[in-house]
Amino acid sequence: MGRGQRSGRRARGAGWPAAVALLALAGCEVGTALPFAPPGSPDAGSDEEQVQCEGAPTIDLKLLSPCCEGTGDSGHCVPGSYVPDEVQGLVAQCENGGYCIPDAFIEAGGAVEPVECLSVNGPGVCLSSCIPQVQENYDLLTQDICDVSQRCVPCINPLDGKPTGACDLKLQCNTTPASQCPEGPHVGPPLIDPTQLPACDQCDTGGAHCLPADLVPGDLGSRLADCSAGGKCVPDEFIASAGSFEPQTCRSVGGGEGRCLSRCLPEVAEQLDRLPQDVCPPTHVCVPCTDPLTGEDTGACGLSCDTGPTEPPLVFPKCCDGRGTCIPGELAGDDADSLGEDVCPEDSGLLCAPDEFIDGTFVAEPCVTTGLIGGGEPGACLPDCLGAVDTIFVGRGTCSEGFKCAPCKGPFGGDTGACDFLP
């Protein structure tokens, strides 16, 4: 087991903070295209548009946590940022975040029009048993022509004569949002020549210069570093295009879609040890479009004239009964040797990191060991997800459920590193 700081360590993939989401570099703001939505929502298209709909890009089910077990249907947890508010109210919320969406919807990118059927009191539509209200009334609803995992939900509630809303669900086409940069990214000679401005003295990587503060949009100034001679340290692409630019696409953490952003941006500089270079120039690194731990939008792929991500979000799967996350080995840093891969997708190369380590807040409780060898010794309570403690030779000791008491000393008297996590 590797050694850690006394305040507790975290895997290097810990969070792609809302910091990146703050980088609205004056220009276009791009909304998220919705995979499906009920009629009446501002995102619902016309009937003609819906007929031509082919659905949104699908999300690989292997990257999502399963849900809906025991209902007769299968589903997976989709991040809340990709589920419209109206749909969130119809489906179950997952314990580990996101919403339980039937697999048929996910695999079709939401392009699923409910099948009409004959219900208990007249017309209805076939809906998945993953939907809580369908499951609650499963034995009362007819199957009719619906799939075995569905039931025919009536258009009209037989108890009060009011619409159930089931027959109002319509297909929502996923369309690429129109660019809010009417003239597109700037092409041609720099509108402002960055080389004529002082270099940023606090950022030695290059690719950014000091722009007078009065030329920096007010809401952007607080997110940029100060130059010692005055002004703000601004990436050259922003200066040269006067804010109308399109960041280069790249492959970020875990192979997910990202954008090349300047190392001189404070929010990016704080994460340099976690972000890959990929095809970005030396002055930039590849920032992911989506936080692979939460599925939330980082904002990196909606800057200026960028029309947003073109691929489904990459979200690392959960492990250890939802108490851990499967992350790439390179993000685990010094912790990699102590993490196990047996509970992560086969041949994925991912390692199961306890969430307590990932969020960077973990501090161990002291304990007294019990085990086949060396019982009664001082130790530290560590998550039982750790490969280093997932052994019959390390017992629970005085730790709470989900933890094992790892000894401070090894069988030959050397430090194990476990007690470096103690307060």
Briefly say what this structure is:
The longest helix is centred in the middle third of the chain and has 6 residues, at 236-241.
Share of residues in helices: 10-25%
- Quick one: biggest sheet? 3 strands, antiparallel
If strands are numbered along the chain, what order do they take across the biggest sheet? 1-2-3
Number of contiguous helices = 10
Instruction: Catalogue the unreliable spans.
Output: 1-52, 174-180
Portion in strands = 15-25%
Query: Rg, please?
Result: 26 Å
* Strand elements, count: 17
The span between the termini is: 18 Å
Give me the strand/helix succession. HHEEHEHEEHEEHEHEEHEEEHEHEEE
Secondary structure class reads: alpha+beta
Chain-averaged pLDDT: 76
Shape designation: flat
Written account of the structure:
The chain is α+β, with helices and mostly antiparallel strands. Among the domains are: 25-31 and 178-314, no CATH class; 47-115 and 127-142, no CATH class; 318-358. The protein has ten helices and 17 strands. The chain has helices spanning 18-21, 47-51, 85-88, 103-107, 132-136, 218-221, 236-241, 266-269, 329-332, 355-358, and strands spanning 66-67, 75-78, 99-102, 116-119, 122-128, 150-154, 208-211, 232-235, 249-251, 257-262, 284-288, 318-319, 324-328, 350-354, 366-368, 378-383, 403-407. A three-stranded antiparallel sheet has the order 1-2-3. It has a three-stranded antiparallel sheet with strand order 4-5-6, with no helix packed on it. Strands 9-10-11 form a three-stranded antiparallel sheet, with no helix packed on it. It is flat. Mean pLDDT is 76; it is low at 1-52 and 174-180.
